[in-house]
Amino acid sequence: MALRSSGSRKLSFEILSKNKYLEGGGPSLIYQSSSDPFQSQNGGNPSRHNRKKKKHKKRKDSTTDLPIIAEDLVDKQRGSSGGSVLAESKSENYGSRDNGNVNRISYVGGGSVVVLEESVCQNVCGFGELRQRNVNGVVAGGGDDMETVAARADESVVEVSSSKEPFPPVAPQSMANGNVVNRLKTSESLDWKRVMAEDPNYLYTVDKSPLKYFLDEMHYGNSLRNTTTLGSEKERERVYDTIFRLPWRCEVLISVGFFICFDSFLSLLTIMPTRVLITFWRLLTTRQFKWPSAAELCDFGCFLVLACGVIVLGRTDISLIYHMIRGQGTIKLYVVYNVWEIFDKLCQRFGGDVLETLFNSAEGLANCSQENMGFWIRRFVSDQALTMAFSILHSFILLAQAITLSTCIVAHNNALFALLVSNNFAEIKSNVFKRFSRDNIHSLAYSDSVERFHISACLLFVLAQNILEAEGPWFESFLFNAFVVFVCEMLIDIIKHSFLAKFNDIKPIAYSEFLEDLCKQTLNIQTEDCKKNLTFVPLAPACVVIRVLTPVYAAHLPCSPLAWRFFRILVLISMTYIMLTSLKVMIGMGLQKHATWYVSRCRKRKHHLD
């Protein structure tokens, strides 16, 4: 049986050794075992030629990077004569070079061990499958099982040699991360003419003549179908909202906010001084000191800030500032105006917080105990000083802005139009193309209301300067310039909010809700979020207006004795106070009625929808 197996083994290796690829010195893909028990049993010694060949193969095997399949070590059988059977099968893949599978079967039984090693190489060297079998038998007693296994191995070798025919050589496939990469077949997938011939759009466009193409374009669909799409009802509503519905509601909101600012300004000039005079009159008549309330402390603090601001601004030389701004040639006038406007907005935002701090200290001072009196007095004094300094700084900035606007209006080189174009379009550029939330647009609408009131204060300064210094007919020119400034400001606000609402998907009903919150603020109805209220500090505009109107009143006083001049001053102040108080009452009552009507209308609408 051993001879039979040995003969079969020699036949298999003779077939493999006759392969030209193996004889040509290429890397060996099938490695034989270094130990052959059958040759050792037969006493066959290898020839000198075979020894050189083996040495040559070993040298080449050391240079190749192919993995060497090691043999399984078989432990010797220990124990009694009763044997056990062990069957083991392994299959491993060694990469892209050999695609080999190695199957080993170890059989132990009845004191004999048989190791069958099968190495399969597929698609290599032109062979479909090449198999090598090493049968190692260790006879320790009993040879029936050994003969059975050898017979099975012999039969399998005959089946392989008879059934497997060599295939034509196939080029090795490239590997990418362990996966076989399929290459495109040029004859089928890269046939551009065939692909374009199967495309109906290609046939539709290529086979046309220029005349047929032009006629098809004339009769086929919309002429702008390639760059535009058909709109929907929603898009139509957005267009009409941007052009008609939203501008009207936006302008109503900003106008109501402007009149609320004007009402607060008139309250500072009429209501606050009256309450302070009443407090001092009660103190003088009763001659009993009574600790003031929080409202009285707030009025006293605002009156002190206003008086100090007017006194400090009265010391400034307006003509000097005017000539400094007009005479410099480094910076353009519209750039200077933009700088003052930016600082004005910053002071307006921060001034509300400073005034709230003062009112908070006044509330704590009015309700504090005797033990904490010193602490609250020091806190109120420090907050009063901070508010005074900040208000004076804001007044100087607003005065410089008014002087710059007056310089642009009286200039004869179209500086006003340059200012309007640069300022307004810079405002559009800085706001329209940004992402805004609903609350940010709400705050922006209130900021536009405050800005419009500051522009009105600047125009009043220009009017006062023309009254004092202008020669010849100037009133018509002033009206025209003021009208241009206001119209440009209105148009810019409308364009800005219309496109902001379009780009941020804000419906026009949102501006109606903003107006409802503003009306509730007018009626002193607490809303859910107090941060959404309109914040306006009229201290700086009031200081500027008083500063510019004082020379106008002084210019119309006659040169008469001091008592008569003092009487004329009292008459002018009384007339001005009556006019401002009447205007305050009219605007305040009108805002109250409008707010009541609008809030009730919104409630009815919500009740109807529910």
UniProtKB/TrEMBL annotation:
<keyword id="KW-0472">Membrane</keyword>
<feature type="compositionally biased region" description="Polar residues">
    <location>
        <begin position="30"/>
        <end position="47"/>
    </location>
</feature>
<feature type="compositionally biased region" description="Basic residues">
    <location>
        <begin position="48"/>
        <end position="60"/>
    </location>
</feature>
<feature type="region of interest" description="Disordered">
    <location>
        <begin position="26"/>
        <end position="99"/>
    </location>
</feature>
<keyword id="KW-0812">Transmembrane</keyword>
<keyword id="KW-1133">Transmembrane helix</keyword>
<feature type="transmembrane region" description="Helical">
    <location>
        <begin position="566"/>
        <end position="587"/>
    </location>
</feature>
<protein>
    <submittedName>
        <fullName>Protein POLLEN DEFECTIVE IN GUIDANCE 1</fullName>
    </submittedName>
</protein>
<comment type="similarity">
    <text>Belongs to the TAPT1 family.</text>
</comment>
<feature type="transmembrane region" description="Helical">
    <location>
        <begin position="534"/>
        <end position="554"/>
    </location>
</feature>
<dbReference type="InterPro" id="IPR008010">
    <property type="entry name" value="Tatp1"/>
</dbReference>
<feature type="transmembrane region" description="Helical">
    <location>
        <begin position="474"/>
        <end position="492"/>
    </location>
</feature>
<feature type="transmembrane region" description="Helical">
    <location>
        <begin position="291"/>
        <end position="314"/>
    </location>
</feature>
<feature type="transmembrane region" description="Helical">
    <location>
        <begin position="385"/>
        <end position="403"/>
    </location>
</feature>
<feature type="transmembrane region" description="Helical">
    <location>
        <begin position="252"/>
        <end position="271"/>
    </location>
</feature>
<dbReference type="GO" id="GO:0005789">
    <property type="term" value="C:endoplasmic reticulum membrane"/>
</dbReference>
<dbReference type="Pfam" id="PF05346">
    <property type="entry name" value="DUF747"/>
</dbReference>
